[in-house]
């Protein structure tokens, strides 16, 4: 997925036909968001949804691992994790050993694992499957993303849905508008003597003319933005990838930088209700075990401090994180110590308002559909639930006649 161009991905998903992607995909900066926070601050009780996309098709069976199931070991003897290697959740399942923070969230009843998530008549193509997940339209091609339709249904302000990824994902493209784009790059203020001199420019002086006062105030606003938005606004994405994390020597990573920025925006009261972030590299056709565990560790070390940070403020307590990938992998390993494109996989929901535990039925590893897992939970059930419980919108306005929902996973 990382080698596919943005243009080709959008063309093959079919979402480029949405005129809003061309005219409404607003590139914004910190001034737009902080101005919005002052003029129309996020209500402390307003739900906020953070969608995490794992591009490439994450292997769900080595994420939420049926380590006690003999069929699992028979199907992938060299890729399988032993029961003593996984982080036990119960019911014969355990998390990948790289997900220690999510295991703590599970123990704290703040992690929901939705099992067997997919859609009818699954497609093994990255492009078609991602288009289905991002448009929430399995049966027919749609020119709008599901959160884009939410924007259309509830107001056309692009600041209500923001992508902090390098590109704007199709899920934020509506018919009349699209979400805004705020990539994690480049707000870097001078330091040392130059920094002190720069800060002094913002100090007000008695009797100064109106426009001089406004110029000084802009310097103060800039410094405030850097302080509020935090380290993720400083330097390039490459620098963000190597920023050290305090816990266990893990690296910060691109996803951590994205979530750090989201956290600062939530705490600043920016009126955005939906954010999109992503992590790529999950197309593990060869040498999967080490690659996937590294990526899941990066996911874990990004999500864990983000969720813990959000628990500390009233606005942060309203944040719900949704994690998904376009499909799972085949049950049987291939000859290259990897797995090929499959079907159903787990989704995660995290946050203070999440009622932790298992939801949905674990797919059978012996009752397969031509070697693939059979979907037991429709992904639109999850979308409908967060639309109604987090974003406060009638799911029918976005999902049409799909009525499925997950009972009890989110606090009312």
UniProtKB/TrEMBL annotation:
InterPro entries: DUF1501, TAT_signal. It comes from the Bacteria. Pfam families: DUF1501. This is DUF1501 domain-containing protein. The lineage of its organism: Bacteria, Bacillati, Actinomycetota, Actinomycetes, Pseudonocardiales.
